[in-house]
Amino acid sequence: MTTNERVPEHTPRLDMAKLAPEVYKAMVRLDAAARHGVDTTTLELVKIRASQINHCAFCVDMHSKDALAHGESVDRIIQLSAWEESQHFYSPKEVAAIALTEAITVLTDGFVPDEVYEKAAKQFDETELAHLIAAITVINAWNRFGVGTRMVPGHYQPATHQH
């Protein structure tokens, strides 16, 4: 095997948008509603981190590219998987959002710890916090669609943004 040879791309299991269009459209609407009141930078960090935890390669690809398109640094995206040891890359508000994302995403570790919630509650007002929790819930649902249907990463291109 040469160093340029790659493993072949897998095929998706099924197309949720085509086979369950009402579910897909409802998810898009829920996603749009959840993002109100959460700044784009924090939102993309949350989406990337949840997707990393859930092993959703499609969503990691999509949200990393979206974050880069919005001006996010490569360093902050790279460090996100080890954020606890690289908190100095992030603001206190972002750290609180990332910690809350992990607590809500990994429910097998137990309930969301009070200290994680309280840290987030100090950084976000109640309306922002409600939307942040909704956004974390939505990306977790998208991740489960992506992993369950084996969506193929690597082909997503972010929309071009006018500045």
Topology at a glance:
Layout: H1 16-19, H2 21-34, H3 40-53, H4 57-69, H5 74-79, H6 92-105, H7 114-123, H8 126-149
Describe what this molecule looks like in 3D.
By secondary structure, this protein is mainly α. The protein has a domain at 40-148: AhpD-like (Up-down Bundle), CATH 1.20.1290.10. The chain contains eight helices and no strands. The chain has helices spanning 16-19, 21-34, 40-53, 57-69, 74-79, 92-105, 114-123, 126-149. α3 crosses α8. The mean pLDDT is 93.
CATH superfamily of the domain at 40-148: AhpD-like
Strand tally is: 0
Distance between the termini: 45 Å
**What profile does the largest beta sheet have?**
none
Strand content: under 5%
Mean pLDDT over the residues: 93
* CATH architectural grouping of the domain at 40-148: Up-down Bundle
Could you say what the CATH topology of the domain at 40-148 is called? Answer: AhpD-like
Shape descriptor: globular
H-E order: HHHHHHHH
Q: Helix amount, in percent?
A: 55-70%
CATH class of the domain at 40-148: Mainly Alpha
What's this model, at a glance?
The protein has 163 residues and is an all-alpha fold. The protein has helices at 16-19, 21-34, 40-53, 57-69, 74-79, 92-105, 114-123, 126-149. The protein has a domain at 40-148: AhpD-like (Up-down Bundle).
Give a quick set of tags describing it.
163 residues; mainly alpha; AhpD-like; globular
